[in-house]
């Protein structure tokens, strides 16, 4: 089915915008944060907790699910929504990034990529076409094509070759997708830190034509300024009428900056990864729950937060749970962190609708940068 | 405040009975299963999940909480109910068992027990009086006195000495409790596997006088028959008008047998411990979630169960979560197991109220013993 994306508000001071992305299964209000459920579960959280926290969409990873439990099991279950009991939208990452970062002994050629599983060493061959097939089996609402991602720093030559292959694969992905036209297919802009390559990549993808565009290959170790520059540059090269998804970003300050630069969609493992380690995001900055200063602190993680964790538990109790290695501790902090990110986006959208995004961003960052616990 | 225990139904074929235990904070329908939250959390579950699963009371451990986070922190928080945000009843085990099983270099004398913490080697001295003080600080609804528990097998002489000390300490605990009369204090019958010692222990406790009686020192490695004999024997020696709590029991079949023998209260770590390891209790017996046979099994853990896990997730998905080491897997199976135990007790109570306990027990066990997955 055709996707519809409407930009409802554009900010006067920045490139920020608020919109609605409508798809067959439901719609998304943007800017949106997508909690990451790599292996068909957002780590430590249940689907009902995600819905309660306000998640509109979950991100899953085709590479991981292809290896475990295997595409066939999920297809037989009626797709990923039924398999993990998630009624809302699903975006699946193709796993291009994982093939390059996790797998062993990979051999990349224009046809596709041969690799050994990081789990058991088994050999696999993925092509742009088979990756679309996998995502069709998963029943994704938004699919990403197989792309070639380079690390930072990458030479111009290497980055250019990756762009060329990403374009080649994007075209083949689009053709494969067009056979069923299930879900929505995005293109992924690569080009490392080279503006001319980002421009080339964006133009080539535009000429293939996608319903949305992702900016990939960022947040891979480059300095923050460079990341912002690449987002800004790529966003300007992409059509205003399509959603822009900044892959793997990021911390609250990075998301706010990327929104300012015109990005609409975000995903990051940070809320749950930090949560498991006992780092909580609060309106006054990050705090380390194990910190001895909280042993008798009977305030919530974030007094400005309305989440289940903050309405019911004290820092003192959470610290006790982390000190004793109890699972409830990492569950509650993960929940709070996901809620915090989703709530931040809700406030971003409200500020855009009310024409006060720039001042919201300023005030949020000024409080957020107060301290580090 | 005075506790009130009313036996509402007594079974005609067995010693089983259904009753109501009324206390200041609320009441309990018996027979009751008490989920174990040793360190102020039932492992992996949130308080709202416990309430949803039907828990009426949580068991916590004074020894563990005295060591971490320390009694003072919990007292300052307004007690354990507020500390862990649990509005329902709390029974605290004294930690007598833990002093004997976990602590290092313990020296026991009539005055009390000196030991080194199993966590950091710090030295502590607990007396019957200080253990009541700790439970007062915790704000327990039902307190257990410090007792001396022996392992199985124990010589008659050793078991007799433990009974003598348990009686001595029970008297001093009662005196200490009487100063504030907060909560309800139970006595603990010891005596290992010696009927004459069990009788002696019960009689001495009765002459001190408690509002409820626990049967301790069982489920410590003795054969099942011997355990049932000791429960049966001790129950007969205890006053019919007081609740009988069988400590640390047990598996569904053991609980049903103990109910038949006249026991009213139970606790066990089994539902959450098995849950973390991927063993699920079902109406047709235990199943091992990781079993390859479940990789494509789209039925719930237990088709007869109405819990959140069984209403929403398949064995195939749960197996995937365990295979990938995802926390949601152990959470869901722990939740299901706790629900299963609480639901079993609900059915036991209903069958007692309707005068069909013996046939309920027979039918349950016949289905439960069908298979082992």
The CATH class designation of the largest domain in chain A is Alpha Beta
CATH fold type of the largest domain in chain A = TIM Barrel
Number of structural units classed as domains of chain A: 2
Judging by the overall fold, what is the CATH architecture of the largest domain in chain A?
Answer: Alpha-Beta Barrel
Q: Round the mean pLDDT of chain A to the nearest integer and report it.
A: 96
- SS class of chain A: alpha/beta
Q: Give the oligomeric state of the chains in this entry, treating copies of one chain as homo and distinct chains as hetero.
A: homodimer
Binding site for substrate (chains A, B): 93-97, 147, 190, 217
GO cellular component, one term (chains A, B): cytosol
Family (chains A, B): Belongs to the queuine tRNA-ribosyltransferase family.
InterPro entries (chains A, B): ArchSynthase1/Queuine_TRR (IPR050076), TGT (IPR004803), TGT-like_sf (IPR036511), tRNA_ribo_trans-like (IPR002616)
